[in-house]
């Protein structure tokens, strides 16, 4: 496969590697061997040449003087961040020496990998690494921090991560953006909706924060956090009661509509209004708008699922397009994540078959703090890559305490000396995605994309794939799978007859064209991978597991009597904690705010711009109050995962619970409660 590394000047196609649904096609401009500009690829069918501000400034991150260039070993105390450079040989020898000792003394489960999608490339995110950890028999990480609850919940209804093709949404007449801050997190869906809006489409946003997405809407509906299941059930109540359902669709393509019709009688608008904070007349208006507008699209965001009841919430909302028969209409339907269409041969990439110990224990990444402090037998070594748990994981104080353990041998592989890396015994420098070969599968649009290396590795940095090849050698693993090249692995991934939609994608053509669309059958809903093959409004699967078989509202856990429900979401200019350490992005974002309702602020003597202490039994931080009407009474919201800075208590995840959501082992970042008071200056 071609690489662009040897061409010092020119414009080269690339892909955005960040954990973002849009997965933009990029053009990377090089001068004298260095990236001087990153822009959108105008030929990309979906993203069409526009990209976000974050990535327009990507070159500043790639060449940030703080970027790691060499392996390091710790010389200070854990967390202090004092390190000395070492060679790769010494780094690999040190790691494998410790691991061999741990394996013989305590078994391989004493070692835990911790990773997420700092790089969405299928090879660097989950291929050689998992081959290695499976071969080793290490404890297995449940990678549940992002879309686990909602992904599983959606599948109880739809059977797979299948939804509407975003390219069709230019025809949509009604967008319901539900629990998604799309202006910041799915900007190309906003652009497509803008096109539709020119043809008369209306945009409804349902959120607990009137942020930039709410301000963009034609109609913003504020809702109390964690109550959306009730709102969806209230809509269903009206759709059935006023005969706005598509009976023929329900009869042919769903199971359980009669049971659902009876079941939702209890969710009358006044009951639902009392739960959700949405006035009954607005519930009527929304249901009637939804029941009479076609094509209509429900875009389900990740905000809904980061709650105690998040799985059931997404399962419930996923039923709505079936009630109105919207799956039949171009531009109609729903969308949570579309990654099912690009499902590839993960068995071949990850080789779970080589798992030495079939009973290997699993550790939920959302409770990593508790796991590091309490698991018995203990985790004695942690290998972190493509993730920054010291900032992104809940119960942040527990996470830091766990990372401080003297007997924990920690390795961190990253581009920067992150908050997590500061606790490492060994730090390894990672390449950026522009330095790698990889392939990408969007979880929103239907394109697979190829990444050919654009620049040479920064300093001595290495890709995840390369590091696991070295670790395998160091451990004495001689399996052939560790010799596979990137090209070998892409070919293996594409060999996957189980997904008929992948038939349109061949390796040769992908190399030639850089992106190819899955051959998705628009009538996918006629044969779904649910037990019944239909859309399951009633789920026997859920029933067997002890859940309510029909969509049902369960309130959030009342974890304390603190007065505010606290929703700490992502912000516009960072991507999770990525960019929180880059001057340009921090400058754009300025400082972390706490959005508060004016009545609450007044009652507590807090004025706009005051520094406030936000606390609960898990921890505390200090943010700047932004007082107004963007949140309902009893709710406070912050945005962004802010970097550690001396004297600034900005680590919001010290406040978030590590309780596990109702489905999929998901996170509950937005189900915590806090108190707020003014800091005396
Ligand atoms: N700019 C930017 N883009 C990103 C990211 C980023 O950090 N920055 N992160 C990326 C990643 S990994 C992900 S998972 C996605 C996440 O992006 P989204 O899918 O947009 O999810 P969130 O931003 O977590 O939450 C979306 C909205 O849900 C609202 N919300 C919270 N709880 C509730 C509730 O109970 N009901 C309702 N109706 N709304 C609620 C929040 O106020 C927020 O506005 O974005 C990706 N893109
Ligand atoms: N309070 C709160 N917490 C949250 C969320 C929230 O909404 N609120 N969102 C949650 C969600 S949805 C998610 S997805 C998680 C995300 O959490 P993480 O997956 O930890 O995401 P990032 O913070 O972006 O950190 C990714 C790291 O990977 C590194 N990296 C990038 N490319 C590579 C590579 O090729 N190799 C290696 N070795 N490293 C690389 C980057 O430099 C960066 O330090 O955060 C979760 N945490
Ligand atoms: S972060 Fe998202 S919007 Fe920005 S360039 Fe990457 S894929 Fe596109
Ligand atoms: Mo995420």
From TrEMBL:
Domain 4Fe-4S Mo/W bis-MGD-type: 9-66
Cited PANTHER family: OXIDOREDUCTASE YYAE-RELATED, TRIMETHYLAMINE-N-OXIDE REDUCTASE
InterPro entries per UniProt: Asp_de-COase-like_dom_sf (IPR009010), MoPterin_dinucl-bd_dom (IPR006657), Mopterin_OxRdtase (IPR006656), Mopterin_OxRdtase_4Fe-4S_dom (IPR006963), Mopterin_OxRdtase_prok_CS (IPR006655), Prok_Mopterin_Oxidored (IPR050612), YoaE_C (IPR037920)
Cofactor(s) essential for the protein: Mo-bis(molybdopterin guanine dinucleotide)
TM regions (residue ranges): none
Record protein name field: Molybdopterin oxidoreductase family protein
The entry's keywords: Iron, Iron-sulfur, Metal-binding, Molybdenum, Oxidoreductase
Organism from which the protein derives: Brevibacillus brevis (Bacillus brevis)
Family: Belongs to the prokaryotic molybdopterin-containing oxidoreductase family.
